[in-house]
Specification:
Number of helices: 13
Oligomer: single chain
Number of strands: 21
Number of domains: 2
Distance between the termini: 18 Å
CATH superfamily of the largest domain: CoaB-like
Structural class: alpha/beta
CATH topology of the largest domain: Rossmann fold
Bound molecules: guanosine-5'-monophosphate
Radius of gyration: 24 Å
CATH architecture of the largest domain: 3-Layer(aba) Sandwich
Strand content: 15-25%
Shape: globular
Length: 429
């Protein structure tokens, strides 16, 4: 049976300096027992009574950059001449444990979170007016007039991003602003991005019960593109964001499966509560699958694996030359053909032109898959780089299910429900 999600949300409070976001962000943590404040890493020196570990993790620039190179940050930005970043691992662990995380960050950072963590809730804190913002910045007494001017200019740039946020809070009258923050926090608990898609909505596909199939089963999902290196800094890749695979992993997780996500370098942040195996190349993905697919009840191949790779990899960085080097490519192996998965496989086909279904079915047979999800690559607003998708699920026995355009989360839930039903009916495992 599906239970409501026990994963925390990620709430991002952003806006111009001086808008009062820290007070509003801290208010959530003081008001809601399940909310935790994310302590950022920064290169700026402590001010006033700020304490290491409570207000910031204060580090020098060398340490900050070394963390950056290790992929320590979910997002990072240079703000007013200092570097600031959010600890990715801590956010993952905290949301996995069921607590919600509140970030108090700048607007550039919020935009990075939007891309990497599709379910994040973005709240923009808007000062009541430019004059009031100037008065607050001046009144703090910490900045000289040229600094205040720079902050005012930055504010004008940042406010233009308001449309990319989910909510705004006009931070004028304090009590109202605090109440509004509480309302936002509470209302997000009804959000589709953090809870299993309601089974009732899937009734319209006639396959709600299919979700029950996954309780206690093991599912392996692949996601993202692969990167095929030319040298130590350049690679061949494609536009896959990894979002479809992440949403599938979430859907199977919420249906009660234990999920392993084998992911190439994705822009989407992997969902909490799944085992993550990170790879870079197609060959590494093949090895990871051989290692993890044993005992699985389904392998869903949502990754966009490169068909080709450079025939050789140069050391360091290839020099710039008068004439561009010729790229010699060689085919990557067909991961499924090599794998012998030992469980039903769902293939994905992205087909742009006419004759799509025939080509998708041919791909399904070639790969020994029991079903293929045919995505339309040519519909505006859908497919690889977007949050939406649509398509048709084709089964080896001739069954088909049209999935109308919807968010990738919705498409993933519909796929999980329908596959569960099909496999349940054929008495699978
Ligand atoms: P302050 O130095 O006044 O504490 O913060 C300066 C600005 O940096 C504020 O807008 C604050 O929200 C932002 N900031 C603090 N931590 C982070 C972080 O981890 N990432 C990003 N992108 N901005 C941050």
């Amino acid at each position: 049976m599906r239970t409501s999600s026990s994963y925390g949300r990620l709430i991002v409070v952003a806006g111009p300096s001086g808008a009062g976001k820290t007070t509003l962000a801290r208010h959530l943590v003081e008001t809601f027992a399940d909310a935790r404040f994310s302590v950022s890493t920064t290169t700026r020196p402590p001010r006033g009574d700020e304490r290491q570990g409570r207000d910031y993790d204060f580090v020098d620039e060398e340490e900050f950059r070394s963390r950056m190179d290790r992929g320590f940050f979910l997002e990072w930005a240079e703000v007013h001449g200092s570097l600031y970043g959010t600890d990715r691992q801590w956010v993952r662990q905290t949301t996995s444990s069921g607590s919600s995380v509140v970030l108090d960050i700048d607007v550039q950072g919020a935009m990075q979170v939007r891309e990497r963590w599709p379910g994040a809730v973005l709240v923009f804190v808007l000062p009541p007016s430019a004059a009031e913002l100037r008065a607050r910045l001046t009144g703090r007494g910490t900045d000289d007039s040229s600094t205040v001017e720079r902050r005012m200019e930055a504010a004008a740039r940042e406010v233009r991003w308001l449309g990319a946020f989910d909510y705004f809070v006009l931070n004028g009258a304090r009590a109202e602003a605090l109440q509004r923050m509480e309302d936002i926090y509470t209302s997000t608990s009804c959000g589709l991005a953090w809870s299993p898609y309601p089974a009732q909505a899937l009734e319209y596909h006639g396959c709600t019960d299919g979700l029950d199939h996954w309780g206690g089963r093991k599912v392996v999902v692949t996601a993202g593109p692969t990167r095929e290196p030319l040298d130590d800094v350049r690679f061949l890749s494609n536009r896959a964001s990894g979002l479809m695979g992440c949403m599938l992993a979430s859907a199977f997780r919420d249906a009660g499966a234990s999920v392993t996500l084998v992911a190439g370098p994705m822009r989407a942040e992997p969902p909490a509560g799944v085992d993550l195996v990170e790879v870079e190349t197609a060959l590494q993905m093949g090895r990871a699958l051989r290692e993890h697919v044993r005992g699985a009840h389904l392998l869903a191949m949502a990754a966009a694996v490169s068909d080709f790779r450079p025939a050789s990899r140069a050391k360091g960085k290839m020099d710039r030359r008068e004439t561009a080097p010729q790229l010699e490519l060689e085919p990557n192996p067909d991961l499924l053909a090599e794998l012998d998965a030992g469980c039903p496989v769902l293939a994905f086909a992205l087909e742009m032109a006419g004759g799509r279904e025939e080509r998708a079915l041919a791909k399904m047979r070639r790969k020994g898959a029991f079903a293929v999800f045919l995505n339309r690559g040519d519909l505006e607003g859908q497919g690889m780089e977007s949050g939406a998708n649509a398509g048709v699920l084709l089964g080896e026995d001739g069954r088909r299910l049209e999935i109308p355009p919807g968010s990738k989360r919705y498409v993933a839930e519909a796929l999980a429900a329908c596959l569960g039903r099909w496999l349940g009916e054929r008495g699978d495992g």
